[in-house]
Amino acid sequence: MRFLSAMTIALLALVSPLAATAAAVPLEDLIRHPEIHQVKISPTGSHMAVARSYEGERVLVIMSLSPLKITGSLRFRGKEEVGEFYWANDERVVAEVMSRRAALEAPVNYGSLFAINADGSRGKNIFGYAAGEQQLGTRIKKAEATYAHATIIDPLVDDKNEILISTSPWARDFESHGDVHRLNIYTGVRKEVVGLPQVGGRAFTDGKGNLLFANGTNRENKYELYGKADNGWTQVTHPLLRSAYPVGYDHANSTSYLVVDTPDDTETLVTWDGKKNIVKKVLQHEIADITDIIRHPRTQKPLGVYLNPDYPTVQFFDEGEGFAPFYRGLKKAFEGYHISFTSFTRDGKKGVLQVSGDRLPSDYFLVDLASKKVDFLLSSADWLDPQKLNPMRAESFEASDGLRISTYLTFPAGTEESGKLPMVVMPHGGPHARDFWGYTRDAQILSQNGYLVLQVNFRGSTGFGNQFLDAGKNEWGGAIQRDIAEAVQWAVAQGHADADRVCIYGASFGGYSALMNPIRYPELYQCAAGYVGVYDLELLYKKGDIRRRDRGVAFLGETIGQDPEVMRANSPLYHTDKLNLPLFIIHGEEDERAPVAHAEAMLEELEKNGKPAKSLIVAHEGHGFYNEDNRRLMYTQLLSFLDANIGVGAAEQ
């Protein structure tokens, strides 16, 4: 491709995703961080900005497209690196600043913003704790240090100097309200527009700088939606919209698009004419909630939705002046993959397309919507050959009480018809989260080493409607664990798994389940590995970041209750006598979500009962390991642990 040949090889290392060889993928390649994190085109289409890894740090590289060359870059060095970024106008990019200031390996977003021109000039901290400037005797307003997070809510396309941001102040109790500001992207000077009505939310605009909504939660952790009024905000009381989330605006018809959290059902996309107070249903899927919105490339009007009932799919409700047919054509060209646009030019004629799948972390393409030309740009992990990775298969079964449970199976290469494979059950975290079809590092590592991997969207998972979510409340140790156990029994009954070679491994809530499931169903497992897990439910009220805010305490009350006897009955720490199998406990010393005290207490109790477990406690890591050396250590030991108990002898030594 002529477009590809012009790329700077040292910067982009472009490799087609279609190359194929038969060798398995080594662990070293699977633990690596992606090379490319995001690609976005500028409003005029003259430049492209790329967030990528360089010497272990995330940096921003800006390139002109004609001629194709690097024009500017942003690298902080030290403990800071580039996070999410946005084109604020034709020449200037605003990037979030990530920092390792908390002695963690993983960088954390503290809310700061840094702006830089496409030619690399005029770089400046414009918001956050590092944005302050001295103001000695001058009347000229200067940037001030702000201890808050900022979310860009509107680039203000008609204002070349300012953007609109919604802020969330730092506060250990998470009870301080934020504000909406106009922020100068060159000077960092900001002007307050209005305060926010609740905590933990943000404001929303019509895409042209006009505020429409704000959301947040009250102290009981109940979601609230507010509409913009002349003097601040008014809570939306329409019975269908109290729990709605704004997702777009149609200027032609002066209507807002919102996703409604429907009681006892899946989410519904609706339109709302605020002046007439008329709500109209647009779309609802029978199984799945709405994952994201497809918007018109020029007007940003919602045209369709992304859905994930099992495999990713889309539904359009508006042809969008020919965009929907064009998108369908792209989808057909990339059959078997998930596609979405990261950005468009202001005129909607060009865009950057992200393509991903179960065997493809992400590839990026430049799309000319007028000529229908599609050119390959970059691969996020060009060292991973899709032909060597293992496909993920979506299936489902009916739980004993009739609930539909979705699963994902990742088979070792060439074993889909073999049957009776050694299996690792991998319950997800949350529990209010879900697994998706797509590239999953852990599933690839385990399947590359000979294990069938079973992922389960048990009750309480998000993405399948309110009734499914609510079915998991106060069921951490009950019905949720039954779903996981029944998934194991289903996989065995289908002939996929060998009942005598099953282990369970999970992180966070998945780590809790990795120990709780063998307590409830000891006959199913030959070993268990808990990673950054919660092992004492009472401890969630005493340690960690959840208990620091009223909303966090309310969340715990809704999900695990407050009865000490019930919490102990559902805590692995108090049932070590039932854990008669090999155990592996993995944790980061700096974990704030599930403090290392969970692992320490569990290991101490096991030792006391004469059941010493294998353990790996790593300094400077938090809720999941980030450092590649630490990842290598963890996965090497995990694979050896699995090999010793259900193994196939494939672990890399």
TrEMBL record:
InterPro entries: AB_hydrolase_fold, Peptidase_S9_cat
Signal among keywords: yes
Record's signal peptide: 1-22
Origin species: Microbulbifer elongatus
Keywords: Hydrolase, Signal
Protein name listed in UniProt: S9 family peptidase
Residue ranges occupied by any Peptidase S9 prolyl oligopeptidase catalytic domain in the UniProt entry: 439-647
PANTHER family, alphabetized: DIPEPTIDYL PEPTIDASE FAMILY MEMBER 6, SERINE PEPTIDASE S9 FAMILY MEMBER
Keyword field contains Calcium: no
